[in-house]
Amino acid sequence: MKPKSGYADWEITQLLSNAVGYPMNYTHPSEIMDEIASLTPTFTGVSYARIDELGSIQWPCNADIPKGRRPCTSASSCAARGNSW
Q1: Distance CA 57, CA 65 (A)
Q2: CA nearest to 24, candidates 14, 16, 36
Q3: Contact present, 71 and 50 (Cβ < 8 Å)
Q4: CB-count exposure of residue 34 (10 Å: 0-12, 13-18, 19+)
Q5: For 58, which DSSP code?
Q6: 10 Å Cβ neighbour count for 36?
Q7: pTM assigned to the model
C-alpha cells in the first residue's frame, strides 16, 4: 500500500538521518531488517522472507527458536515460561 503522505515511515527516518549528517541509503525496508538481524542476536532469524513465510514472528527468533517464541496468551502461559504477565 502506498503511503498517503508520499513517504513510508522508514523513508522519513532515512531523509531525516541524511539531513542531519548520518547517511542512510536503503532502497527497501527489508535492507533495514537485514541490518537489524545482523546486529541483534534476538533477531538473527528474522527477515522479510521469513515474515512472508510465517505471517508474523515473535522475538526472540534465532537458531535456538527458529520460528520465534509463541506469544503469551494468558497469565498462566506466561508464568509457565517464567515470565510475568
Answers
A1: 11
A2: 14
A3: no
A4: middle
A5: P
A6: 14
A7: 0.69
Q: In the structure grid, which three cell numbers stand for residue 12, read together? A: 522519513
How far apart are the C-alpha atoms of 66 and 37, rounded to whole Å?
13
Contacts of 73 (CB under 8 A, 6+ apart): none
By the 8 A CB rule, do 58 and 69 touch?
yes
Contacts within 8 Å (CB) and 24+ apart, 8-11: none
Q: What is the pLDDT of residues 47-74, one digit of tens each?
A: 989 888 888 888 788 888 887 877 666 6
Gyration radius from the chain CA atoms = 17
